[in-house]
Automatic annotation (TrEMBL):
The lineage of its organism: Bacteria, Bacillati, Actinomycetota, Actinomycetes, Mycobacteriales. Keywords: Oxidoreductase. Residues 6-244 form the NAD-dependent epimerase/dehydratase domain. Pfam families: Epimerase. Belongs to the NAD(P)-dependent epimerase/dehydratase family. Dihydroflavonol-4-reductase subfamily. The keyword Oxidoreductase applies. One of its GO terms (molecular function) is oxidoreductase activity, acting on the CH-OH group of donors, NAD or NADP as acceptor. This is Epimerase. CDD domains: AR_SDR_e.
Amino acid sequence: MPRGRVLVTGGSGFIAGHCILQLLEAGYEVRTTLRSLTGEANVRSVLGEAGMVNGQNLAFTEADLTGDAGWAEATAGIEYVLHVASPVQPGHVADENDLIVPAREGTLRVLRAARDAGVTRVVLTSAFHAVSWGHPHDDHVFTERDWTIVDGSGVDAYGKSKTLAERSAWEFVQTSGGRMELTTMLPVAVMGPVLGHKLSGSNHLIQRILNGDMPGFPHLFFPIVDVRDVAKAHILAMTNPAVGGERFLLSNGPAVEMKDIGALIRSRFGPAAKKVPRRTLPDVVVRVGALFNPELKSLVPELGYRKNSSNEKARKILGWAPRDPEDAIVAAAESMIDKGLAGA
Ligand code: NAP
């Protein structure tokens, strides 16, 4: 007997895929949305290749965050929703509304439909981008109490989209959510085993390092968490009776310097890591490059800044025990090399 019915939005995504794999393995019945059902066969095959069990308990339905169609059908008969789908594009974008509108309006669409369908709890995948941007660069340790200051310096369109979407979600459940509960997840950079041949957000960094796409390492630090632990946290947050109304920061340990990510990959992957740069780039070189390159421009304020974050709340209340960031880096690189996505 399946344990309960869960809707996961955006089944073609990296984090959503890992959530679906774990939910099926734990015995849940899973429904997932795609923008178009023409993608179903591919998602099934990608998840199958990743070791999916109980695939007969997975169903697909069509819905887009930018329209109302399909959300009532997607949420009908559902107990829990993991709202994971959102456009992921950190850095420079031509029009910030391409991210903000689907993130915020889409979240409200999912919440409205979930409330109307009598869903018990929605777990929303927000992000560390909704926590730690726009603040002074000091040694503050970020927690769930912090919020990104959307008009602060260095906040990109993605950071705005995540912050505005999460704020709107809290406002919605407080004013119009009825009995439905909301819990939000705030992962730092998510890395780990690639599903299929599509890379999401932070895994691109590992691909660029493996492919030697940069002449050297800028003086940048990344807080990293493993995708398998992020999926696990979503499932813990879904059923723990004590966590309705809570935010959880999903991080693990100090941010890792980019050159150390490179050194780790070089030490583990021999010839496949031959293009990994060995040099670090002086800050002045990045600053000059930024005068001509909008992508580099967004990195300049982050040079030399190691953000601190605490996962104490997730450990204590969810009983979450994440693996080391090194495992996420190695698993990401290994899966890319095995699939011929990088390092050739
Ligand atoms: P991903 O692989 O790019 O997945 C994003 C998903 O959102 C895809 O399924 C995509 O569908 C869907 N989507 C985008 N726009 C949509 C729209 N208008 N309507 C319906 N679906 C739409 O990214 P991910 O890394 O798994 O990210 C998933 C969630 O985690 C996002 O909310 C992201 O902000 C959050 N997060 C990610 C990271 C990270 O480092 N990766 C860190 C913190 C938080 P298509 O396949 O059709 O494009």
